[in-house]
Amino acid sequence: MEKNKGVIGAQTILSGLNSEDWKKIELEDAFRNKWEQLGVVKNMEERYGFMKNLMANASLNTGAGDIAVIFQYMKMLDPRSVVRENEVAQVENAGGVPDNIRNLYNKTLTGVILPDAVRQQILEAAFSMYENQQKIYDETYDQYRKIAASPERDFNLESAIPYFQGDLDLNVKMEQLRKIEKLARNKDDDAAFIQKQGYNSMNMVWDDKRNTWVSP
């Protein structure tokens, strides 16, 4: 019954539209299709997906996670590359990826675990690329939004030019990963300091709540 009411309501609204209304709807649809087909929009959606997956795997600190981290980074560097995850990267299938990154990726396929510092460098480099893409996207969106809102068009902005926003705020996620990395680095630095001072680190315990080494 409720479904029928909704259908009847929609039919009533549509029946009240005149030719000018229909023309505006068609123009909005054409404008939205043009917007969604822009390279900058497709690149934003792609980069978001790569970055989201990269972040998820960076926090695993495992061999499989490192393979996925570099693979996603290579896709950000060269979205058109045809190399598959767990497949050896060569010039033929990942020509747009620098040699050092391809070599690093191939090493992880043999079981090599990335040092924390290297993993963090890849994460930061990938996020910088994502931020640049976000900036380009936002600038383009503002330009098209002004066109859609111009008096001669006066489109419904939500319909004519939808703003892409993923289900996860990557800026917030990046800050969380940076805090985790900094905490781990401080923990290692403190452990080295304890050993340098001649203390027996085996008698010290890391307190996660206080973020410091304490005597048990």
Describe this structure in words.
By secondary structure, this protein is mainly alpha-helical. The protein folds into 2 domains: 20-165, no CATH class; 169-216. Helix content is 66%, strand content 3%. The chain is built from 8 helices and 2 strands. The chain has helices at residues 2-15, 19-36, 39-58, 63-77, 99-109, 116-148, 157-160, 170-196, and strands at 205-207, 212-214. The chain has a two-stranded antiparallel sheet. The N and C termini lie far apart (68 Å). The model is unreliable at 5-13 and 197-204 (pLDDT under 50).
Task: Name its key features.
2 domains; mainly alpha; two-stranded antiparallel sheet; 216 residues
Number of helices: 8
Largest pleated sheet: 2 strands, antiparallel
Radius of gyration: 25 Å
The class by helix and strand makeup works out as mainly alpha
| Order of the strands making up the biggest sheet | 1-2
Q: What's the number of structural domains?
A: 2
Net shape:
elongated
End-to-end Cα distance, whole Å, is 68 Å
Oligomer: single chain
Average pLDDT number: 81
Helix percent reads: 55-70%
- Following the backbone from N to C, one meets helices and strands in this order, namely HHHHHHHHEE
pLDDT < 50 runs, ≥5 residues: 5-13, 197-204
Number of strands: 2
